[in-house]
Write a structure and sequence with these properties.
Elements: H1 3-11, E1 32-35, E2 41-44, E3 53-56, H2 58-69
Antiparallel strand pairs: 1-2, 2-3
């Protein structure tokens, strides 16, 4: 991935994004996600919906999901 790829993700407007969160999640532990073009995803803290948004391309998102499935993030 080039820095241009990330720049393109961060240049996308999110005013029409459909943010979703896991049902039943503790409100203090939630994140929200939204689909981005090309299979990417955006993440934000719903307590600060106008704050920082992290954006991941499809390859990065797939790697993250693989890590979750492989229990890489459990302590």
């Amino acid at each position: 991935m080039t820095s241009d790829d990330k720049a393109d993700l961060y240049a996308l407007g999110l005013s029409d994004a459909q943010w979703i969160t896991a049902p039943g999640a503790d409100p203090n532990d939630r994140i929200e996600i939204a689909d981005l073009p090309g299979g990417g995803m955006a993440l934000r803290n719903p307590a600060d919906p106008h704050g920082a948004v992290q954006r991941y391309n499809a390859r990065e998102w797939a790697a993250f999901l693989a890590g979750v499935r492989d229990v890489e993030f459990d302590s």
